[in-house]
Amino acid sequence: MRFHRHFLLACLLAIVISCQQNSAPSPAAPSLGVATNPAAAWSYEQVIDESAWGTAFPDCIGQNQSPINIITTPNAPAPVGSAPQLSYQSSSFSVVNNGHTIQFNADDNKNYVMFNGDKYTLRQFHLHAPGEHHVQNASYDMELHLVHQNANGQYLVLGVLMQVPTGPAPNTTSDFATVWSEALQLESGPATCLDGLLNPSGLLPTTNTVYEYDGSLTTPPCSEAVNWFVFSSPVQISQANKEGFLALIGANNREIQPLNNRTIYILPGI
Prior knowledge:
Blueprint: H1 2-18, H2 50-56, E1 69-70, E2 85-87, E3 93-97, E4 102-106, E5 112-115, E6 118-128, E7 134-135, E8 142-149, E9 155-163, H3 174-183, E10 192-193, E11 210-216, E12 224-231, E13 235-236, H4 239-249, E14 265-267
Parallel strand pairs: 1-7, 9-12, 9-13
Antiparallel strand pairs: 2-5, 3-4, 3-10, 4-6, 5-6, 6-8, 8-9, 11-12, 11-14
């Protein structure tokens, strides 16, 4: 009996270690789809009634909320300061269905963005369907959010719009193929190791003009002062990708929020 207990423990340890082979420890990834206070649970069924979120999470009724409808003009202002510099490489991730989305948690600190002298480390990325941001009043089928944090806990999020094409099924990168193979079969439960390595740069569009604005997390606690960079060109996905995600998670997009007095900037590339 003692042998079996020791053998089982060794197997469990091997599974945990294999997710982080040859990587430095990473802080716990922020789970933006799960309330930290069990008494303050939330759901997307409440999303149209913002007061339902705002009662438990006051930031959700703030003045700088996300997502927004991105409306720009040809003479949109250029941002002040430097453009973000991406440093991505193949890395290990764990993946979890937290009931609100499929979330891929970084197992190391290899991937980061430099912005205005600060290093924002990639903590996780996750999916929304339908897409959350609109561009010039147009909506999108899905949206991918890559969530980064600096040493002070401030957020920087890259938003990747996703669209089902009207023509033939799209070509996809090997990194996106990995995402779909994991995301569309994962039932709710504990995190599991992603099979193989994934390079986040393979999840970005090849045309990299971006919209920049100050916003918030799009799920409770809806924390503000988030640096948002939304790519102007969508990546293509298949109808099966979209329908598979919706069958597993359901619609998980927040309603468009007022722009108020915020400015939207255009960067020619990052």
